[in-house]
Amino acid sequence: MATSAVDVVPSSAAESQLCRDVRALLKDMNNQRGSLTGRLRWSLEKKVEMDPSCSVSLIKVLLQELRAKLKTPEQARKQNSNMHIIPLLHTLYYVVIQSGSMVRSSLYQHVFECLTNMLILPLPYSAVALGTLRSIKMEMNTPGSLYQRRVMAEQNLKNEHFTSQEKVFVLADPAVFSAPLIKTLRAYLEVSNMVCDTPTMKKNLVLRVLQKGMGVVCQRLVQTLEASGDQMVDKYFQEVVQAMEQSIKLGAGGCEDYLNRLQHIYRDILAAYREELTPTDQSSDCSRPMPFPQISFHLWKEEDDLWNLLVNFTLHDSFGVVDQEKNKRHSDDSGIVGDLKEREAEDAEQPPAPNPAPVITRRNALRSTVDKLRLMKEKMETCPGRTPVLNEDRKCRTARVLVMGDDRVLGRLANAYHSIRERESKRLILTKKLDLKLYYIPVTDEKPSSGSSDSFCLDEEAVSEGRLSLAFFLGTVDPWYNHNINSLGATISTLPSVVTRDRNEHCHLSAPPEQNLFLLDNLCYYLRCGTQPVNLPVYRVRMTISSCQLVEEVFVSHLEAEVPEFRHLKQSQEPSARRTRRPKGDVFGAVITVSYTEKSLSKREAVKGEALMTSRVVITSEPAAVITGEDFLTVRFDSLYSGYNTKIQTQNISIKTLEHRTLSVCLDKDSRRTYTNVQNVQISPCLDPGCNIRSRFSFRSERELLLSKYLDKVLSLPINTFSSVTP
User: CA-to-CA distance for 591 and 612, rounded, in angstroms?
Assistant: First the structure.
């Protein structure tokens, strides 16, 4: 592909400075403990926000860097610089969506060709390139559409042409956040709700689209919209949205009609002025930063908090949730007594009572199977490497759930996610209308190790003893997540001290400090660009308690089972654990029987059983990376003397106590999820309730079997990142 010199060589001093900024950002990424990457990326965003005219120059610089990665692919692999592709692609997308300047179609065409050439790259680069390519293509055919759709969805600007609505739920773990930190963080996030009124926002959107589509916004146009009543502003806004949605549906063929309709809208607005437009009326690009999405901050106190938030958001303004659901169910009733009893049990969110004379209605069976197939389709859409569909209003609502905490909050999220899938498998309430996106910002209350100024410069030794194992894993598989999100936890932890310093300097919180904007901007960047999920495996735990009670739970990172009688002995024996010779007469722990499945390199499974003496069993999840290709558990049996510890790797294991002893089991290092007097523990990969199809009709079996053949039925927790898994 031939390129002009102006596309490769910086043509101005401003463009040269942007080139240096981008290369400094990429250079800082090479430092695994670098902490400036998030700040450097944020400063680039602010330059585009304050000076929209520099967005075109920045697009040229990013295009230049992407072309350089394609020209020397072999050298890039040797230097391990392919990880620079993900930051470049996301920065390019964010510049395009933020830019208030008109971008020439010729420059878009060069970007389009470069991204097309990147589709030959392996995953996840090709997946992110494809998502960026689709966005660029839509923006090229319908200028202003990315910004307009994003703002309308985030601000819930209702109209008849684009019905997508979004809401951000931030759930913080009260075990991690102190009272001062909760108060400060809530105040910082509530700044996002201090937005301008709806008519003003609609005016800004109309101006932005006209500026992007026509390349000019005059002062007279701004004055006319300011003087217009709310009804007239809404009329112009609806016309712009209608023109945009029709253009998106037509693709490249609708671009000319779209620009013509913008021209007509432009003339209609200026019709209030009889004087002709003069050159002095032309003004420079208007700086209108993208407003923050509406953020709802909550402390995650009860297990059902997430479910209740999602149900209220999904069924809000639905003509009365309870009445609507009851009317729908009554209209579906077959009139059979057994059917009515089953529906009453479902209304109480309890499984139906067993019926000695089961009655099966055709309609119920069909509905159940179709609902399950929908759940299976939802699972397919969270597979790594899949790009988000641009037609985001295929479902009317999107809930972006962002949890803050350590491994404990991800354990609670996995439990809640499993509960949601289980409820949906019985009756669809959320899935038909709601897209659920999960995000994670690691925050810990643990103090950083000595000699480390940054608590989020994670290494394996620190992670093994702390509660950030999954944050370390996500940062390892996605370096861009590591530099932008893992480092954000340290910023959150220092918020109370920042506020105290500001108060001492007589600063007013009504004027948020720069740190506030940095936090919100990074959070929004993650929510808008984190489109590639990393699937964390979820494991099922079945525990038999001494009272013969059977308890089923799930965990995602860690399980620890210890014999309480040996807890104090373990602590007292720590200094002598370094002895290499086995002492005579010493007790090493309680006797337990272990049965597990061992997997070899040939993928053959062998069931083994052992009797061990141990005082504690520590089980950690090892999510699959590119090298391993398969999830597994690392099981460590701790003796009173560390020299006699043993370790195995498996996916299924059963542990049973002997000698009338019991275990104390803690899930995901969370003391709130501790079970005592446990005699038997069985661990296996957790099956997705939405994939457990039991067809009652033969003509459904072939389709279900076809889906089941290519679908992983194991439940995983999809945490959105920037690139999924990077080799």
Answer: 6
Q: Kindly state whether residues 425 and 531 are assigned to the same domain.
A: yes
User: Is 303 in the same domain as 183?
Assistant: yes
Same domain membership, residue 173 and residue 52: no
Helix (H) or strand (E) holding 198: helix 198-214
Closest by Cα among 319, 290, 350, 285 to 100 = 285
User: Rounded to whole angstroms, how far apart are CA atoms 123 and 477?
Assistant: 12
Check whether residue 307 and residue 279 sit in a common domain. no
As beta bridge partners, residue 491 has: none
Give the Cα separation of 290 and 527 in Å (integer): 13
Provide the domain limits for residue 47.
5-143
> pLDDT (tens digit, 9 = 90+) per residue, 674-725?
999 999 999 999 998 877 655 433 444 555 555 556 666 889 999 999 988 7
Number of domains the chain contains = 4
Residue 633 lies in a domain: yes
Task: Give me the helices (H) in 458-611, please.
Answer: 460-465, 469-477, 479-481, 488-493, 495-504, 514-529, 567-572
Of 379, 351, 364, give the one whose Cα is nearest residue 691: 379
User: If we measure between CA atoms, which residue out of 270, 205, 271 comes closest to residue 237?
Assistant: 205
Say if residue 553 is in the same domain as residue 676.
yes
Asked whether residue 156 is assigned to any structural domain, the reply reads: no
**Global pTM?**
0.84
Sign of CA pseudo-dihedral 190, 196, 199, 201: negative
Q: Contact 407/415 with Cβ under 8 angstroms?
A: no
